[in-house]
Amino acid sequence: MPLAKMTDIYPNYKEQIFGGEDIKKYSVYTAESEDKVGDIYDALVDERGRFRYLIIDTGFWIFGKKVLLPTGRAKIDYDRERIYTIGFTKDQAENLPKYDDDMVVDYDYEEEVRNVYRAPATSKHSYTADTYDYDNEAEMYQVNEGNQQRLRLYEERLIASKDRQKTGEVVVGKKIETDTAKVSVPIEKDRVVIERSTPGSAVEVKPGEANFNEGEVARVEVYEESASIDKKTFVSEEVTVRTEVERDEVSAQEKVRREELDIDTKGQPVVKNNR
Predict the structure, then answer these.
(1) Is the Cβ–Cβ distance between 7 and 14 less than 8 Å?
(2) Average pLDDT, stretch 237-253?
(3) What is the model's pLDDT at position 60?
(4) From 27-31, 103-107, 139-143, 199-203, the region with the lowest mean pLDDT
(5) How confident is the model at residue 160 (pLDDT cuts 50, 70, 90)?
(6) How far apart are CA 136 and CA 17, in angstroms?
(7) Is there a domain that residue 243 lies in?
(8) 24 in a domain, yes or no?
(9) How far is CA 14 from CA 29, 33, 147, 161, in A?
(10) Does pTM surpass 0.70?
(11) How far apart are CA 20 and CA 15, in angstroms?
């Protein structure tokens, strides 16, 4: 049965297969020299939904050519968002048949692909379209779970945030209070004082100096001050209402958990622990 593209079989492949990762954004590099081969264009799956090939757009490595890479020849580095090829050379890429979207990937086409990846000693075989099984060439298709499995380590962290809420309200207004005020002002009043005196000895007036006029008067103007009390308005005080921010620091202490790798080896394997 012809193979189908991953995006046709699994439209929601990011969540269904790769835990939210978009493998189509990954770049492809050689594991030996870390030369960039190209980018992931798509993948091919068989009738059982198993991944068999990655479709690589070789870009400028081999301009404008898409080729197939068996899944057993690929290692996924999720942290660096890369696919590393195992034993993949530029000569192989040039000898691989070109992949097109509108083509049918059947047994004959796969055989052209497999013959490029097979070692010369195993290039001759007795397989047919009816008898071939991908398990016959497990090294080409079997995903090495020891290299491919992704283990996520989790840790708890204290995250500080701030919430702003209303704690009160201050209303500053005006009210009128009535009081009795006292004020004093000095005033003056004129008083008429008439003083009369009698000479100690008679003073003779010469003839003709005395003038007896009936009705002769002396006129004096009399004044008096009165208090005039008025009310006037003055600014007694200015009030400014504002807020000031007082800064403080709140500290919290809490126990947090963190996962660490616990590597248990048997025998004498070589373990390279890259962080």
Answers:
(1) no
(2) 86
(3) 80
(4) 199-203
(5) confident
(6) 25
(7) no
(8) yes
(9) 21, 29, 20, 32
(10) no
(11) 4
